[in-house]
Hints:
The chain is mostly beta strands. Helix content is 6%, strand content 53%. It has a single domain (2-379), classed as Beta Barrel (Porin), CATH 2.40.160. It has three helices and 19 strands. The protein is globular and about 70 Å long. Mean pLDDT is 81; it is low at 1-15, 82-95 and 174-179.
Amino acid sequence: MWLGLLSTLALAADGDRYTVEFFNGASLANARTLGMGGAVTGVANGAAAMMANPAAAARRRENALDRPWDADGMFAILALPLVDRVLDRQREDTDPILLLHPSGTLRYRGFGAGAYAYGHGYAASWSGDDGAQVDASLTQALVGAGAAWTTADAGLTVGAALLVQTARITVGDPTWLGREDLALSASGLGVEVGALWSPPNTPFRVGASMRPPMRAEAHTPLAGVPLDGARLPLELAAGGSLRLGARPYNRKPTYGEREPAHTPSGRVVLFAADLVLTGRSLDAIPVEDLLDEAWTDPDFAAAEAGLTLGARGGVEGEVLEDRLRLRGGAYWEPARFQPGRLHGTLGAEWGFPGLRGFRLSGALDGARGYQRVALSLGVW
Length: 380
């Protein structure tokens, strides 16, 4: 059966070569970001936001503005345990999708450096006419490392990151001695740049980021399978945030060189919104089709995804100052190869007494045919 599947793929190609598009939208994020509907480009709050805006590497924690050194980091786990049908085009059960996302930053005065990684996988199986079971699996990993710099008053921050993407697709028949064939193994390099404007003593921030298209070229394709690489499309993001409450949002750092100004205590509320433009993909296959029986359709063909616009928004409020935070948000997942859909998100965060900076965050993300749970633990 698995040989028949690969032969059908080759016939369906009819000489064309396909690219797999990975659309890494708001759902692929840590719990802190996901709870805000993915709107963090204009917040840029340290390691948790570096994947959305590289300038975040130089943005200090609120309680670390008056010392020269600062660091933060987190580890996030995201899973989809609540659904059988993960993607709209799937017609069979899948294994749960799991995403791992560590990140960390280190800062000295106005300079910051950091790194993050995330890896996630999809799997599906179906039975052919002869009753044999066919399994397909797909894994993707993205690693970013970058640096950022902020002005003396922290009014302007700029950053850049180098990205490495890898992708691996396998198709096999587990009933036949566990045999598995590699359909695609690809890797590639890319860059991302970002900036944040946060005028001192104001309650707002404005941010932007750009990631040019990234292509991972296939270096070990299976003969006859028309996959020649994986692609992350162009992404342009712009966003803003507004924080209301007793504590200042954009306080000037002192780095321990002078007596800090008195900072009032009290709860705050944060509002954030992003717009994200995603570029075109030509002769591409979405992830959905890699896990769908449409692969065995002789009339199956690649498609084009045009320019799409996504919107994200969220709010975060402190119930207990610097201890308990609640979040809510929403984002529009734009139509790439399938109709777009609206997501709603909820989140909560707890700061551990006696362990300043240590926090545990959780988030829920729901849409038509989709639910995700996220947990993040770290220092921020």
